[in-house]
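Assemble and predict.
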Amino acid sequence: MKPYQRKVQYYETDMMGIAHHANYIRWMEEARIDFMEQLGYPYADMEKGGIYSPVRSLACDYRKPCTFNDELSITVSISAFTGARLMLRYEIKKGDELICEARSEHAFVDKVGRVIRLPRAVPALAQKIELLREHVDAAEAPEKKGEKE
Amino acid sequence: MKPYQRKVQYYETDMMGIAHHANYIRWMEEARIDFMEQLGYPYADMEKGGIYSPVRSLACDYRKPCTFNDELSITVSISAFTGARLMLRYEIKKGDELICEARSEHAFVDKVGRVIRLPRAVPALAQKIELLREHVDAAEAPEKKGEKE
Amino acid sequence: MKPYQRKVQYYETDMMGIAHHANYIRWMEEARIDFMEQLGYPYADMEKGGIYSPVRSLACDYRKPCTFNDELSITVSISAFTGARLMLRYEIKKGDELICEARSEHAFVDKVGRVIRLPRAVPALAQKIELLREHVDAAEAPEKKGEKE
Amino acid sequence: MKPYQRKVQYYETDMMGIAHHANYIRWMEEARIDFMEQLGYPYADMEKGGIYSPVRSLACDYRKPCTFNDELSITVSISAFTGARLMLRYEIKKGDELICEARSEHAFVDKVGRVIRLPRAVPALAQKIELLREHVDAAEAPEKKGEKE
């Protein structure tokens, strides 16, 4: 999966001269939507198919500021998947510098808010997610020792 | 009608140290929604009743900058009404100082975008708007001489 | 301290028909700025005095959606204070219903980003924060048993 | 000059299911910044050089709605230039369909708000703008007959 590329816009800065912290949440969404598209399941199609994916929680660690015109690169990875919930991780970088680490947790629901289990509703997508998650586990296991998620 | 009061938020400033110009468009919406509520026709109720009011055009003259924590006061008035189109005027002030003059033009449409004529759909609201518009004409006519709208 | 009152704006909704999750981060800022003003230390004055308070991290648990015109009430409390770092907690409610629980962590720095210790820079404010924090500890201690922060 | 390409983001939609009209103002800024970069005078560099370019006025005609994931293409052109003021025109298209026509007017000022005449401050840029404007006049003159700008 290719990282998502994003330039900081002028209107995203604040009077401190840096990108306002609320915008990172929007960039995470952009990167997530790009990630789903790379997976072959564009979010727009999923909503048309009656599957919504609201954010249940999120967390952001702001490491370094960034500002207008900075080129950001956002890597999304799957940290957990239960069939009804998906946990994503984000690394926002400016060149080699880590700007922000973040997480988001997503439910899958239908139009009226009833929980959808992805493995039943879209088995092929659930399988892809499962695969990517395992890959993450394998690749990241050593560094993650002692981290409680 | 009472002017709409609004404080400039920190996240609305940009690296020039002033409120970013795109936010004024949002403040106009806030003031317009407050105006409709004062009229007795809250916008939320109108949408529930199947009447939508998309923006067809807008124009903004930025006279003075404003910044974080400034207390703004926004006056909305009706400059024209055709039954299917509504033209509003806005004066955004900080104390006595005129910050911005603006206009917006609105259609009335149903859920699928078909034009709704307000005098037929909500006669009482159309009448109120008509009344307020006439009032504007009477009060502002002298100053408006020579202005091309 | 009075909770901060805030109506959800139309432009804060998204095509899911609810307030977009990124806006909550902005409401937290609004509530925080109101909190500082109630404390007698308006954020605008602090920045003029050369003290900036960037967000170091934040976390949001979205419990229930909210939408256009909902009246929200946001309670801010101090969960920790080290002199150089301040941790705040937020409860966003719609009537009695808890919409969102959130936290943010703030540093204090000068114009060029050097850490400021608040007890030295603004002792009276540090004392007020200390007092409010202790009050929180006393009031919330029983419920907090077993919570790891 | 190449048109600026831009996808509509999920967070830019509202509960009407379309991109909220305030976002177009931001897209215009993005396109304008891209235009300046293509001209060889990145806006970030200009601000570092002490030249700011605040928006004095803008106008938008919304022709068709657009929504999440739509690919937009924004063409910027110079409609007038006086040395101290620059008038830009924007066409926002989705495929061949015209979504929005807009204009913005910009001043050039220094850090403290004093007017800068571009032909004196950055003669090479002023010349480029002049050239592009003349080109516009020549190309568009016939269609523009009778239009008062």
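The first strand of chain B starts at residue 4 and ends at 7.
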